[in-house]
Each structure stands twice: as C-alpha cells, then as structure tokens.
Amino acid sequence: VQLQASGGGLVQAGDSLRLSCAVSGRTFSGYGMAWSRQAAGEEREFVAHITWSGDSPEYSNSVLGRFTISRDNAKNTMYLQMNRLKPEDTAVYYCASGARYGSTSYTEYDLWGQGTLVTVSS
To answer: What are phi and psi of 30, to 5 degrees?
Structure first.
C-alpha cells in the first residue's frame, strides 16, 4: 500500500498550487482522506479532510476559504487546491488515508504519504 504526494514547489505569495495524493494497494473509495502539514520547527497541523464519498469536507481555520480538498475515486487520487497562498503556508504537506468519514485526529489514519514541500515566498 502506498500514498504518493506530489505537486509541491516554490511559489510567490498569492499564487496557487494543486497537490495530488495517489493511492495504490487499497480500495481508495473505502476510506476517508486528509491533508496535514508541518512547518520547520512546528508541530504537525491538520489542514483538511474528506469522507470516503467526497462529502462534508472540513478545513482548518487557517486555510478555510483558500484551500479546497477533493477526490476522484475513479483515479484513486485526492487533491488539495491551494489558492491565495501565504508565506505561512510554507510546510511539508502530507496526505493520509483512514477514517471513513474523515477526522481531525491523526490516530484515525493508518497510512501516510512521504510528504511534498510547499514553499511560499513573500
């Protein structure tokens, strides 16, 4: 089973990026998915999660209104569209698979990707 996050890079404040998380080795549609992030020297922070069916996404207050989580069960892939990026969004972004109905608790996810680095310059 593997989660492969991609799409990170160096952008300027105000730009957009779309992250992807491709899942292989498990029935993608059976599990909720989430994104979290960790900035250098900081604790990991929940960003967003989505249910197995794509309903009821939830977001942290810091990204609400700017980021959109989505999934394509036919492609076994989850996405994070990040708009109006800010320097404080700079972090390694991780995707996770687990809680069927989504959760902000990391213990509810049993699989994690390796992370993709997003750097936002001011």
So the answer is: -85, -5
